[in-house]
Amino acid sequence: MHFDLDLRLVRYFTVVAEHLNFARAAAALHLAQPSLSRQIQRLEEMLGVRLLERTTQGSRLTAAGAAFLPQAQALLHAARRAALSARAAAPPRTITVGYLEDLVITPAVRDLRRRHPDAHVRTRHLDWDEARALPDGQVDVLVARTPLPIPGDGLTETVLYDEPRVLLVPAGHRLAGEESLTRDDFAGEPLVACAGVAPMWARFWRLEPRPDGQPAPLALVVDTFEDKLELVAEGRALAVVPAGDRRVTLRDDLATVPVEGIEPCRVVVVHRTGDRDPLVADFVTSARTFLTSPWTAG
């Protein structure tokens, strides 16, 4: 029988097995607990066995789970060792630049290649839930928005610029023509949430906690940013998004309105603390020079 195991699911299982509690494991993984439960269920369906049983005290491993755990840990260790071995065997003066979602890094990459014509400069596009490629050694630097979807331990951030957050509404919505808003203007509107995001991420993009301490009215939970756009376009919810997100501009059935009085997100370049590769330092310099704010005056 042939298995194509998703290493992310295997890692999720090992963390749940370590804590034997889905809530604590979800917090450690920076995931929402329902999403973690679904991921473990996917792994169980893939293997055709039950790995965990819920109890009144938390969870416990089944016989199959206990047998799978040491093999899963060995598999993850081997995968990490393989990635690091490949990186170590790469040609000298090699750098892989990761970038999340819609962010554009072309000007900085072009400058780095101009400054180091003999270096091998690679790029890798990542979805939000693939940001662990940086601490896992699959990319050397990462351009992303804060808050980061992964723990920041062992990582160094350089802020490139602040990016305002805006309210995303259907083009025909009552607020679509406003010059700007405050959070009070849409306090009663449901805000869409994405499944599986870290609680800190969810709170930031849903403007929580609210001044009155209440959570934002919750709309449907979706799996992807594109699903979020579709839900807003249908008029079933609103969303708070980065002002510069290019995916919004591809649709003429959506509008954005600036929101006053809320903290911006930040576009940052991140690398592993202690990485002394000069190409990493030079990319940070290129990013600071060429990946600048579209909102800078003048």
UniProtKB/TrEMBL annotation:
One GO location term (cellular component): protein-DNA complex
Domain HTH lysR-type, first and last residues per copy: 5-62
Coiled-coil spans in chain: none
Keywords recorded for this protein, A-Z: DNA-binding, Transcription, Transcription regulation
Pfam families: HTH_1, LysR_substrate
An example Gene Ontology molecular-function term: DNA binding
UniProt superkingdom: Bacteria
InterPro entries assigned to the protein according to its UniProt record, in alphabetical order: LysR_HTH_N, LysR_subst-bd, WH-like_DNA-bd_sf, WH_DNA-bd_sf
SUPFAM superfamilies attached to this UniProt entry: Periplasmic binding protein-like II, Winged helix' DNA-binding domain
Family to which this protein belongs: Belongs to the LysR transcriptional regulatory family.
Protein name per UniProt: LysR family transcriptional regulator
